[in-house]
## 1
Amino acid sequence: MKTSFKILSFLFAAATLASCGNDQKTTTTADSATVSSADTSIVTAAPVTETVLNLEASDQMKYNLTALKATAGQPIKLTLKHTGKFPITAMGHNVVILKAGTDVDSFAAKALEAKDNQYIPKSEEGSIIAHTKLLGGGEEDTITFTIAEKGTYTFICSFPGHYTLMKGTLVVE
Ligand SMILES: [Cu+2]
């Protein structure tokens, strides 16, 4: 007789279901929406932004812009271009940026006498923040300067008789 070996191999898979239970931590409060994302506070080492200003002066004794804007404490790169054709002796132009509180009429009167210094009066240098060279038709000059204090600054052309027409404001914010 055939002895049927009923191998009852009961493989008891010891399913150690270590289901520790999804212990959901309910600590998320409703205030989570108000949490600020990244701390993007301005670091002083951040790259400095330069303000580029392009100003033109013409044979019509005018600037193309009379209102300029810049940022306090950051470099201002200003280019003045004389778009006309008249020579420097007849229609010279510059840009003189004056310190706040400067008496423009008085400054211009002094500039009249400073022909040998491109109409930049040496006695009034304390009132000047920056200035370009005096230019004739077709010429240009670029200057870079920084204004630390916010405010409204007057700029003029100091060539004789020009400032009444060639005057504008640089607003520094
Ligand atoms: Cu001028």
## 2
Amino acid sequence: MKAAVVGGGWAGIAAAVALADAGHDIAVFEMAPQLGGRARSVAGEPPYDNGQHILIGAYRDSLTLMRRLGVAPEQVLKRLPLALPYPAEPGLRLPPGPPLIAFARGVLANSGWPLSARFGLLAAAGGWLARGFRCGASLSVAELCAGLPVVVKRDLVEPLCVAALNTPASQASARVFLRVLKDALFSGAGSADLLLPRRPLSDLLAGPATAWLGDRLRLGARVKQIEPGWRVDGEAFDAVVLACTSVEAARLTAGVAPAWSTVAHGLGFEPIITVYLHSTGSALPSPMMALREGSDAPAQFVFDHGALGGTPGRFAFVVSGAASWVERGGCAEAVLAQATRELRWATPPVIDKVLTEKRATFACTPGLARPPAFIAPGLWAAGDYIAGPYPATLEGAVRSGHAAAQGVATGAGTGANGAANGSPTNTP
Ligand SMILES: Cc1cc2nc3c(=O)[nH]c(=O)nc-3n(C[C@H](O)[C@H](O)[C@H](O)COP(=O)(O)OP(=O)(O)OC[C@H]3O[C@@H](n4cnc5c(N)ncnc54)[C@H](O)[C@@H]3O)c2cc1C
């Protein structure tokens, strides 16, 4: 089969590799001069990441894809047990061992919380477990966790929610949040481990994929039109995987699949701002630390690149769910003030680089209808926004790429989540 993949982010790379491995003749169209999409490196010496990214042990398909392209995850990622230390507070730290026991031991050992808060969290987690980590589609994370002690919401639920769903707890889908908790915290040893990049982001997948795909790759090629048949800018293909952004996929399908296009077009977005500070000779007590967000404190996490094998003295501050900071401005200066106030520095930190991704992820709100992978026979979509259990993540993107490739290869008439005819699907 001759198949086109439109878009070379992690979803497009996953689809392209799966289709090529199945013996199909593929062409990958990517409008940018490089692969990687949102998860790529950007110019700098050494390069910056287009926003700090973290993976977790549960990212099974992403890790398998990296290995398929000759990348050893244990070399390019630093694996650490899940820990959320705050400046001057140890925070929650999961010990090694079977997930349920590790979670219980970690919570009970968190001396920063009163005993009542620790037992309150364990009781709530037990309830989620008993209900199979399922809840009503219309519930928000704030509603789900309304009965939890305030310190648990402040130190665990809110930072985890904004880190995983990039949506504030008051607006975030409890159903997706519970699914993330289930897969990260309660599904096999090591699932919750943090995997922090030790190399520039493009070295994880985009660079190796460029070499692997070779002349099947068409960089700097923005697809303008898809016509039934299927024709991609006039060139005939047996099948097409649209692995571009939801905005572009909606534009390209407006004529050929208007119902699907409308759903894709309806997604909202949440920004992420990454502020890189530089401070010569400084190091954090831990490679990743949580920070308390507030009206004058935008960042929720900070990463020490020197401790991760990157540039010594480079620190990435992450502001997720950053809509209010995009609107009011002054985020980098506020991060600098927050960093100066809350952390110890060998030399005064300075602002090095600020990256604002206005459409970093789709807004993962309760009851959100996401478009399915199947658009029409021979036309499939892949991307982190496609209906599935995960929020916008690398793993969601890779899994959707695999599902689309499988759909193309088998000629199936339904999407990975069972939705037919391009109709919208609520998160399962
Ligand atoms: C700042 C930031 C931090 C993040 N942190 C994390 C994290 O810590 N952990 C995590 O798991 N996820 C994180 N994410 C989310 C993660 O980056 C995305 O979920 C993932 O990269 C999406 O991949 P994708 O292939 O679906 O889409 P994209 O990466 O958007 O790829 C789409 C590609 O299609 C191309 N394209 C668009 N239109 C066309 C066209 N017409 N023709 C040809 N090509 C086209 C684009 O150039 C792009 O390369 C973060 C995202 C951002 C922005």
